[in-house]
Amino acid sequence: MMGATSDSKEGRKEVEEPTPEATPSDPTPGGTTAEVAVPVEDEQVRYHEGGDLRAEEVESGMAVLPEVTQSTEDVTIEDIQVGDPTVNSAEEINRLRRLIWRRRHLLIGKGNALPPAARGIVCDIDVGGAKPIAQRVRKVAPQFREKLSDLIKGLLGARITNMSTSPWASPIVVIIKKNGVDIRLCIDYRLVNSLTRPMIYPMPLINDLLEDLDKVLWYCSLDMASGFWVVVMTDRARAISAFITPFGLFEWNRMPFGLKNAPQIYQRMLDNALYGFTRISRLEGDPALKQPDPETSPDLIPSEPKYDGKKSVLGRRSYIDDILITAQSWDHLCNRVEGLLDVCDEWNLSISVVKSFWGKDRVEYLGHKVSSHGLEA
Questions:
Q1: Distance between CA 327 and CA 218 in Å, rounded?
Q2: CA of residue 72 relative to chain centroid, distance
Q3: What value, to the nearest 5°, has the Cα angle with vertex 320 and ends 335 and 68?
Q4: Which of 210, 139, 125, 207 is nearest to 168 (CA)?
Q5: 360 has which bridge partners?
Q6: Predicted model pTM
Q7: Which of 112, 285, 288, 341 lies 20 to 30 Å (CA to CA) from residue 15?
């Protein structure tokens, strides 16, 4: 999946143990006392000491701090992974490759940099009338602090995060992988998520998405670049997303993993792009939805009904940012690819060149190998 997504999915397959958290008086291994980097206590802010984190809770409400790059590699037409020379003719491969290359501004090369912001979608967090919760900073062992510092500098340099003055603060947690050496740095959003009003939106059922895939000849398995990061945060969401570290308080400019409604927000956006329920339009007058970055200034969630008589782009839903195109013939496949590129252009959605495969007779999709011969786990 997305640059950040791919890391998260792989990490979820491992059994990991968290490091202990610290209270303000916890001594560090070097004998000094951990600093508590929280604002001066305010009656409008609820301060929380936090509790022990169990390994089984790692998946729930955790946002991984990913390693990022300042830029991605340039893409060439040869990088587009189309067909199979042993199955397809050179004419077929070149036809589809040229079609995709005409929209090369949508293609993202190798790397994990900030993608362009999507249009028509923002991430907002509604906690009702809850007081801001400022959790205490958790201790990070000396051997992990340099890693944390590098991750934070990378996120700041890529403009994925900013320094924050928010009254909210969720803590950093160090997750030690099962080999006992490698780590993941995560944000514990369990308290924020417990206050967040849930977004009621149906996620696709895996069995439905895998149905009848053996009845076609050609497939494209596509990965939308950097997934959730294409969604801009509202000012309110940025403040609530703030996370505290030994190096200070930071907040997200783009939607991270681990927030309660993040999958539903992204799924709704992609469903709308593929099925065309509403058109992109700008909403006015809601200060909670003020855009944080005037340079990108994406439109807000659209509300105007759209009916142009057109059928859905692919005739099927995606699973978040994993898109599968199916077709009975090469002509049909090219038409569907062109339709998908049209909506990606309209919504400003980028596609990972490295993780996308076009015009194949066999692909991997949602943990299965898919072909006209059936599914293989």
A1: 5
A2: 17
A3: 105
A4: 125
A5: 219
A6: 0.78
A7: 112
> What is the Cα–Cα distance from 229 to 300, expressed in whole angstroms?
16
Domains and CATH numbers, the chain: 77-115+199-233+255-278+303-376 (3.30.70.270)
* pLDDT one-digit tens code per residue, 62-88: 777 777 766 567 889 999 999 999 999
Structure tokens at 308: 């142009």
Of the candidates 152, 126, 165, the one whose C-alpha atom is nearest the C-alpha of residue 38 is: 165
Six-digit token pair at 330?
Answer: 């090469």
Nearest to 185 by CA among 253, 113, 123, 245: 245
In Å, the largest CA–CA distance within the chain is 71
Q: In this structure, what token pair is assigned to residue 228? A: 């959730």
CA 333 – CA 220 distance, rounded (Å): 8
Q: Which residues neighbour 356 within 8 Å (Cβ) at sequence distance 6 or greater? A: 81, 220, 221, 222, 223
Mind listing the pLDDT tens digit for each residue in 257-274?
899 999 999 999 999 999
Helix, coil or strand: residue 5? helix
Phi, psi (deg, nearest 5) at residue 56:
-70, -10
Q: How many residues does the chain have?
A: 377
Catalogue the long-range contacts made by 145-148 (C-beta closer than 8 Å, 24 or more residues apart): 145/246, 147/183, 147/185, 148/65, 148/172, 148/174, 148/185, 148/245, 148/246, 148/247
Q: Are 350 and 111 in contact (CB under 8 A)?
A: no
Residue 334 phi, psi dihedral angles, 5° rounding:
-60, -40
